[in-house]
Design goal:
Elements (H helix, E strand, L loop, with lengths): L7 H17 L5 E6 L7 H15 L3 E6 L13 H5 L11 H10 L2 E9 L2 E2 L1 H16 L8 E8 L4 H14 L3 E2 L7 E3 L10 H23 L20
Parallel strand pairs: 1-2, 1-3, 3-5, 5-6, 5-7
Antiparallel strand pairs: 3-4
Helix pairs in contact: 2-7, 4-5
Amino acid sequence: MENCFFSDPCFQLLGKGFIIVQQLYRIYMKVTAINGSPNAAGNTAYALNQAGLSLREEGIDFEMIHVGNKPVHGCTGCCRCFEKRDGRCVFADDIVNEVLPVLKASDGIILGSPVYYSGIAGAMKSFLDRTFFVSGANGNYFRHKVGASVAAVRRSGGTMTFNSLNMYLSISEMLIASSNYWNVIHGNEPAEAAEDIEGVQVMHVLGKNIAWMLKMKEATRELVAEPEATGKIFTNFIR
């Protein structure tokens, strides 16, 4: 049997892989984090920035946008975004339409929220409902982006909030990055999260894994075709 290493197809594949690895060092990739806390420099921001440190170490650009201190309309289910399909929400007087194009252009997205009554903070929840609804109305442009979620909590409710944030990522067919524990960091007063050394490590590992997933996705772009998007089938449960 012919040795694979001396066959033309294998040489071509190895050569193509080498070129792709070289190109990765020149490709610009960016991750945008959404800070859903009312505090610009609280524990949620600290956790996101720890992930951002690892991303920058891996050559990935990182930006954090603060939405948790903004007045954000809740989604009314009017479905105007599905009627117009212009990439915008009908409510034009808050931060949602400003941030949408930034997220659309990003390679990865991290959602961060403090824990309020074992759930996502109010402004962040309204922001996510409308942002992901608009994405879904316009071809689901978050599909196959790398996504991750982070929760900051004083005591309990962290995993529930973490799971709720992940719901937005999973329904959008995003590639969800994980860490060596659930992405929850603990602290009450600003800067207390730095004392949660395990939580800090979780954020660092998360950043490394996001960077790896982005690079793997880019490296295989020409080698493995993405599955085709399928039209969504809707069924309503009735009595």
